[in-house]
Structure formats: C-alpha cells, structure tokens
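Page 42, continued from yesterday. The earlier attempt failed because a stray header line got pasted into the input along with the sequence. Redoing it now with the clean sequence only.
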Amino acid sequence: MGPPPVVALRSLPRVHILRDYESCVLPGVCGNKARKLAALVSAPQLPAEGQLVSHGGPQSNAMLALARVAAARGGRLTYHTTPLPRWLRDAPNGNLASALACGMKLCEHPTRQAYADACAAAAADAKQQAAAGGSMSWVERGGACPSAEVGIAGLADEVARWLGELRTATSFTHSPLVPGAAAPAGTRRISSARAMDSGSTIGVAPVPDVFVVVPAGTGTTALFLARHAPRRCRVLAVPCV
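This time it went through. Structure tokens are written below.
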C-alpha cells in the first residue's frame, strides 16, 4: 500500500486533500478501511481457514471490507445485525449484496436486545477461541479495534513525510504535493528527513500549525491518528453518523 497523493485545492491552495481512498490492501479494501484492517490482512496468526465475526448496519462499509478480507484469507465473515427492512431482506442490494457474494453469513436478529445479546455472546466466544489458539477473530463495529492502530500509525507517518516536504517548499502551489515527487516549478525542496532532524527553518518558508480533518464514525481513525500525529499537527474529527 503506497503513499496516497495529496492535492491542493485550486480555489484554496492551503487546503489539501489526501486521497487515501486510492490506497488499498486488497481489491475493494481501500482508504480508511484498508488502514483499519491492514494488520488483520497480514496477521500470521489468522490461519487461511480462519473466521471473522463482526456486527453493525446492513449496508456498512466495514462489513463489506471484512467480508472481502475473510474471503481473501480463505475464510468467511459472520455478521450480526438488527432487523432488516422487508424490501432489503427480499432483494439485497449495495454493500449487503456484495458482502453476501463474498460468502458472508448474515445473522439477522429480531430485536435490538436480541442483537445486543448475540453480539456480546459472539464476542466472548471469539475471544475465548482466540485465546486458546483458535481460528475465530472478533472485530468491533466499524473496525474499531486495537489492531487498527498499526495501519493508522502508517497513515500518520505518511502525513509526516508529506508535511516535511511541504515545510521545505519556498512557496505553496496549486500542483499536487506528493512525497518523493519532483518539485513543481517555482519551488525548492530539501530532504524532509534532514529538515525534520535539524529543525532548521533558515531559508524555508514558515508553515503554520497544520490541521488534519477526518470524518468520524466510531472515531477510531481520529484517535489513533492523533496519537501518532507529527509535531505541530492537530487532528479534527467531524462526526458523520
């Protein structure tokens, strides 16, 4: 999973968009979900026949990403959810249809209480099996689990590298600023590692504190990104549920 491109808005050149949706760990598992599930994809302790168990809404992006990860590892996702609308139960579409096509086992519960009880039991069972060396892994809703920190820490490293490049530029431009790319006309770049190690700002255009704005469902990305963010970088989370 290579570093995503970072592009400055033409109308607001000091606002940049990090196109993380172009970074994938598996086909169809990209961006935020790729970060959260990167450790799960590469984890040696998850055997090829391993099973994943999770829960949430019937059109969840995390559900589909987990179904694809499980299928790629030769396993299957068991997914717990609340009662489906009749029209969706009769004719699955969107993420639900795609996840079912990956072999996902859908466990629809008749009430929210039954759903909560089943999730608690499934989590306890999966954790007990995992502790005994079993092949079942529990993933919290939206991928909000401790293992997500690994992939999101990698995102923080990429932000730091890009920020090092930005801090060494003599001017801001409308061109994409991608770590390792050739400097646009009218700018000068030095090694980001040298700039960050020395802390020198002689001959370098000053850069204000940087705000990284991320959408927040469970808040997992915001939490771990803030934990690993580079110096003078502040993470802002915008609730989107």
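Notes: The CA atoms of residues 83 and 110 lie 5 Å apart.
Reminder to self: strip header lines before submitting.
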